[in-house]
Specification:
Largest sheet: 9 strands, mixed
Low-confidence stretches: 1-28
Helix content: 40-55%
Order of helices and strands: EHEHHEHEHEHEHEHEHEEHHHEHH
Length: 317
């Protein structure tokens, strides 16, 4: 792997303390030839970011150093000034940090779908049901569910789904919060013969490595859409940000070459793309998935409202 990577699978309070302790050492890595990227664990665990980093270094001789954590902590690291750029998948939380002036220049780069996985014999008998109906049945039967419980994008998505189902699962005997990343959560769910919500990429990698024995139970539908965005840390909030190189990285990720790289990842090993390029599909206004992405991930009918674009209008032309 190029550069270095720090991966957190700890409770949020401990995570924040460690992040603050690391801030000085992370700053020592800043330079014209590298970027510090805080990212959701789903992108890192699946292997996509190493795949992109290797190609990016070959092309531009810029090292990408990753701090993998939940989306909430990834954005907190941006707020603390510890990173240059963030990759996340929680539009509502991204909107908050845009409005707070922490980040800007948001571009949607990829999408896939969350999936509900569980024991292959499907003890709740939910296979084929609509997502909300499936969650309602799990709660009614009190079948064990494992949640990340870590304010990650996956956890926030799960909370939205429970809310739509009109169910308050927190504190229930059948509801377990792991307080950890997706890999550990899948491991706990496997041990407990439980259901959980996961991103497709992490699940397929862990299944392929024999780390989880869970099967895919529910895998489609607009409610399971998962959208990834890249955002620059606002240089007005943190002058240490390597803003010129951040812009170059964003431009690469939304370019034809960057989007092709995203689509290529996973094809050789899994026979399918683990992440789908969002830029070309958003150009096709008639594609129903493009409509889903806009409805779910756009903010005030835009990838990034003009007041949060950090003067980079060319990204939106």
């Amino acid at each position: 792997m190029l550069g270095f990577e720090v991966k957190f699978n700890l409770l949020p309070a401990v995570l924040i303390a460690i992040a603050l302790t690391l801030s000085l050492s992370l700053g020592a890595y800043r330079g014209q030839d590298r970027l510090i990227v805080s990212t959701t664990t789903s992108l890192y665990d699946a292997g996509l970011l190493d795949f992109i980093a290797e190609r990016y270094f070959e092309l531009y001789h810029i090292k990408l150093d990753f701090i993998a954590s939940g989306t909430g902590q990834a954005l907190e690291l941006a707020k603390n000034g510890d990173v240059d750029v963030v990759l996340t998948h929680s539009p509502a939380l991204e909107n908050k940090f845009l409005k707070d002036g922490v980040v800007g220049g948001r571009k949607i780069i990829a999408y896939n779908f969350f999936i509900i996985v569980g024991p292959p014999d499907d003890p709740a008998n939910i296979e084929g049901l609509p997502t909300i109906e499936a969650l309602t049945k799990i709660a009614a039967l009190k079948v064990t569910w494992v949640s990340r419980g870590d304010n990650s994008g996956t956890h926030l998505k799960e909370k939205i789904l429970w809310e739509k189902a009109g169910i308050e699962p927190y504190g229930q005997s059948w509801y377990i919060e792991s307080g950890s990343g997706m890999g550990q959560t899948l491991g706990i769910a496997s041990e407990k013969r439980a259901y959980t919500l996961t991103d497709t990429g992490t699940y397929l990698r862990y299944q392929n490595e024999g780390i989880t024995n869970l099967g895919i139970i529910i895998k489609s539908g607009e409610e399971l859409l998962n959208v990834y965005s890249v955002m620059a840390v606002n240089p007005k909030r943190n002058p240490r940000v390597n803003f010129d190189e951040v812009l170059n990285l964003i431009k690469f990720l939304v370019s034809d070459a960057g989007q092709a790289l995203i689509e290529e990842f996973g094809m050789e090993e899994y026979g399918t793309s683990l992440f789908l390029p969002a830029v070309p599909i958003l150009r096709n206004t008639s594609d129903p998935i493009a409509g889903w992405i806009r409805d779910y991930a756009f903010i005030d009918n835009s990838e990034c409202p003009p007041e949060f674009r950090l003067g980079q209008e060319e990204l939106y032309q």
